[in-house]
Each structure stands twice: as structure tokens, then as C-alpha cells.
Design brief:
The chain is α/β, with parallel strands linked by helices. It is built from 10 helices and 11 strands. The strands form 2 sheets. Strands 7-10-8-9-11 form a 5-stranded mixed beta barrel. A two-stranded antiparallel ribbon has the order 2-3.
Length: 252
């Protein structure tokens, strides 16, 4: 059987824009003297799963990434979501679809453990899977009840490592004593699945939960999940930024 490492040819795209509500100019926020987007880009490059491109909605982001040697694509600043930005960038840099998988890595994860980009590819070894993503088991009830933590109703396979996503919610699903899983917002899309996703209309459940992955499930697409054991810090607030500065090692 072909494995993910031999069957898949990934392109990593990091969507980034300045217009963040809770933390303006977030991608340019400095962590040990370097912009946050550069820290994320470095970790994506360190993963060595494929070329890395930053999809910028603003020239200022493009300038700093290029200053540090990164590849960028300027995308329409009015695109409605990061997924749309990822799709636009992938089509521009790879119009012939030589890369058959696109990894969507959020630009606000400066503590990313690079091996996670290998883990997110594993579910795509199954040709029936359209989209792959990651999750961590929840062992704290406060986390389970937190609406800022997205949970997955997950049907695990016998290996206990990969499972099929049945639903995503901000509510503490599933009910009862079943295990709960914290969704990590890193995705690996097959190229056709990415196109289908961004060209589909928003779903009712997507709007209700404010979770765009429910658009894919509503459209009949299959999302499988690889369980991992580390949660990269997502920076949304000043407090998150200060925590990132304590967690990220200073470069010599």
C-alpha cells in the first residue's frame, strides 16, 4: 500500500492578513525580534513536507516574509476567509496542479511542532478521505466546556489513531462519558476537495456554529482526523502573544 509520504505531494500555504479584530497587525507582532508570521513560516519549512508559501492579504506581510527569504503570494485582501486565500495562492503558484495536496496552516501558530505537518497527511493515505485534520484528546472539563475550543464527534478506527469526523461544535460533544477531542485548525486538502469546498455556499450549520468545516460535511465531503499529543498555541489576544514569547525559543 502507498503511504502518505510516497503517494502525496503537498504544498503548504499559510494564509495571513493584518485585519484581525482582537489583535490588530497580528502577523507582524514581534516575538524575540522577529514577526510572528516568520516564526510560523520557519516551522513549516522545518517540517520539510513540501514548499511553503505565505498567502498575504497585505503588502506589509509580504515584505517581511521576503526579507527573511520566504515565498509569498499577494491575494485579494477582500477574500472572505483564510481558506479562500489558500485556494487563490495555490492556484497562482501551481496552476497545473503538480501538487495534489494543499496544507492550510494558520499564520498564528508560532509554537507549531513541525512533525504535525506530517501527521496531518496520514489520513489521506485512504483515497476515500477528502480532507484531513488533527485533534487532541481533552482531559480537562473546563476545556470541554469552553466555546473557544472546537470539539469533534469522532468515530475512531481500530488503531485508535485516525477516525472519521462526524460533527464539529463549540458545545461539549459528545454527550455522556465518551471521549472528547479538541480540534486543531490545520488541514490537508486534496486539490479537488479544496476547490469544491471554497466554491460551495456556506451551510446553515456553518453559520450557526461559526465553523467553516461544517460546510464540507454538509456537502458530503469526508474529513478524517489524526490524533496527536500536542496543541500549538493559537495567538488571538495580547495575553496569547505574551505567552508565545515565553514558549518560543530565542534564536541566536
Amino acid at each position: 500500500m502507498l503511504t502518505a509520504s510516497t503517494a502525496l505531494n503537498p504544498l503548504v500555504v499559510i494564509p495571513s492578513r493584518l485585519n484581525a479584530t482582537r489583535l490588530p497587525n497580528k502577523p507582524l507582532a514581534e516575538i524575540h525580534g522577529e514577526p510572528m508570521i516568520v516564526h510560523v513560516w520557519r516551522r513549516a519549512v522545518a517540517a520539510a513536507v513540501g514548499p511553503v508559501v505565505v498567502a498575504c492579504g497585505d503588502q506589509a506581510i509580504a515584505d517581511v516574509v521576503m526579507q527573511f527569504g520566504g515565498s509569498v503570494v499577494l491575494t485579494d485582501p477582500d477574500l472572505p476567509s483564510g481558506s479562500d486565500r489558500v485556494y487563490a495562492a495555490a492556484e497562482e503558484v501551481d496552476p497545473d496542479h503538480d501538487f495534489n495536496v494543499v496544507i492550510n496552516l494558520q499564520g498564528d501558530m508560532p509554537t507549531l511542532d513541525p512533525p504535525l505537518l506530517h501527521s496531518v497527511l496520514e489520513p489521506l493515505a485512504n483515497p476515500q478521505v477528502d480532507i484531513a485534520t488533527l485533534a487532541v484528546e481533552i482531559d480537562d472539563m473546563r476545556e470541554a466546556m469552553d466555546p473557544n475550543v472546537v470539539k469533534i464527534a469522532l468515530a475512531l478506527q481500530e488503531d485508535g489513531v485516525i477516525g472519521r469526523a462526524l460533527y464539529f461544535s463549540r458545545a461539549p460533544i459528545p454527550h455522556g462519558d465518551a471521549e472528547r477531542y479538541h480540534h486543531l485548525g490545520i488541514y490537508a486538502y486534496r486539490r479537488d476537495a479544496l476547490r469544491r469546498f471554497v466554491t460551495s455556499p456556506p451551510a446553515v450549520l456553518e453559520t450557526s456554529e461559526r465553523l467553516e468545516q461544517l460546510r464540507a460535511l454538509s456537502a458530503g465531503m469526508r474529513i478524517d482526523v489524526r490524533l496527536v499529543h500536542t496543541v500549538p498555541l493559537g495567538v488571538d489576544t495580547e495575553a496569547d502573544l505574551e505567552r508565545a514569547r515565553t514558549l518560543v525559543y530565542r534564536r541566536n
